[in-house]
């Protein structure tokens, strides 16, 4: 009775140990990657640096103000009787304000604003790319884990098959050839299991590098993402929704304003400046205060700068031309990727359906071969082949389901639809407008961003 209670206690302890293994679903994995991935966080920091370009461009609309002050004390001695002591004090405040710059300032600011808009679209694209990479890492590890499980089960079946074959050989029911065939198939299973485990370690390392933690007990993903009903609908959706298109369009707009800004440097620049000077002469002869006021209007007309201004204009024009071509190329590439991925996704669904039928048929065939083996109409090799075909079909089904999920996420990525909201991620989406609104009109102050994460 005591031994029975001990066995029950051990069994319950083991059960609790396995039940306490933390499971992780796809939404949790994607959320971890979205929040903690160092690459995407570096891109967010880069976008915040673009926000400062707007602040810098805006600063040129404001006056430059400087304050200068000085105080000195001098003692001069002439022999034993003469002594001169001076302690002059002076200070000044000056301001300079640009009145007209040929549109250079406003176009420079518009260029910076559109650069920020392009940066946001690029960040959106990179975030969706990260979520796809994380989903792919999740599915690939889940696939490798399932394949290892299938091959481990197959290995146990082949071990039992070898034992049964050896027993039947010992009693004279089977031949040495049957034993050799069972041994060969077992050796093959050991080798393929080792290869599967090796691949699982590779997918595990990739999972951690993207998502940030090691996979534990991953849950299968059974949801379906939104996929347009036809290829044409998918193309129209992608051209409207994919952020890479908007990124190239905003980049072209930014470089177009930069051309206008550089052209403005050829125009006259009008500015006004004012200065107030206060000085105090403190010596033994006089002690008087001096106040001086000065207001100056300046017009500066560029005549010749060695061709620098014209070179800057031509450079900006070529950059704008490049951006125009990138818009065309991005649309062409996107159309190609959407068409290819859409076809792959549709074919993956058919592959799953046919592979499921293959698994069903192979299972029936395996049971039939086993029964016929008992009747003596089938050989050991027939059973081994049937078991191998059944295993291959199950492995093929795992791969087909994995490929279908990856194709679905890849197509959704090209559609521009892999947002945290659409994936139901429990995260606060990164809002680039918060930092932009905080710094675009900030004239004084610093801020510090804490770096979070580790390199484990």
From TrEMBL:
Keywords: Cell outer membrane, Membrane, Transmembrane, Transmembrane beta strand, Transport. One of its GO terms (molecular function) is porin activity. It is found in: Cell outer membrane. The keyword tRNA processing does not apply. InterPro entries: OMP_efflux, T1SS_OMP_TolC, TolC-like. The keyword Translocase does not apply. Its main location: membrane. GO terms for cellular component: cell outer membrane; efflux pump complex. This is Transporter. The lineage of its organism: unclassified sequences, metagenomes, ecological metagenomes.
